[in-house]
Amino acid sequence: MKKIILLFTAIVGLASLQSCEVNDVRENQIFEAEVFEFPASLNNNNFSVVGRFSRDILSFDHILIYRLYGQDGGTDVWRLIPQTVYFNNGDEFDYNYDFTKRDFRIFMEGNFDLNTLSNQHWNTYVTNQIFRIVVIPGRLQYKMNFSDYETTIRTLGLENAPIKKL
């Protein structure tokens, strides 16, 4: 009889654990995925720029950053960073980022002195860049390839959400 009660208690305990749901709540607000647009030039502070979130993100939230690569038939083409740019002469550099719950930093690192970029490359890769920062609540468990911006936005339910400017 004791074994039956123990088994019943274990089953009830497991069922109750599986039905728990954690919400991202702070001051009676539930935070969902968000997307921000961040125009920036990376020609100061050692080819980096810092942006601040409009509110602290939660410690278990994640962010993705996409760079506007160009247009194809009038449609924006976004590339997920980190991203490596290769040149024919063997030089290369990376766009990368890091973040805290308050801010993020986008930066460039190369295997050469980035100050030696030609004017054309400077205008293409350094100045007047547009980034999209996507905040993904840590409670969301998506197993997907986030490299496609449009698919990511659609999966997170942000396709009709206004894009906030930082």
Describe this structure in words.
Strands 6-5-10-3-11 form a five-stranded mixed β-sheet, with helices on one face. The protein is globular, with a radius of gyration of 21 Å. It has three helices and eleven strands; from the N terminus they run αβββββββββαβαβ. The chain has helices at 2-18, 119-125, 149-155; strands at residues 25-26, 29-30, 34-40, 48-52, 62-72, 75-81, 83-86, 92-99, 103-110, 129-136, 164-165. It is an alpha+beta fold and 166 residues long. Helix content is 19%, strand content 39%. It has one domain (23-165).
- Poorly predicted tracts of residues: 1-29
Number of strands: 11
User: Strand count, sense and closure of the main sheet?
Assistant: 5 strands, mixed
% residues in beta strands:
35-45%
Percent of residues in helices comes to 10-25%
Alpha-beta content class: alpha+beta
Radius of gyration based on Cα positions: 21 Å
Distance between the termini: 64 Å
Order of helices and strands: HEEEEEEEEEHEHE
Strand order, largest beta sheet? 6-5-10-3-11
Average pLDDT across residues? 82
Number of helices: 3
Ordered list of secondary-structure elements with their pairings:
Elements (H helix, E strand, L loop, with lengths): L1 H17 L6 E2 L2 E2 L3 E7 L7 E5 L9 E11 L2 E7 L1 E4 L5 E8 L3 E8 L8 H7 L3 E8 L12 H7 L8 E2 L1
Parallel strand pairs: 3-11
Antiparallel strand pairs: 1-2, 3-10, 4-9, 5-6, 5-10, 7-8, 8-9
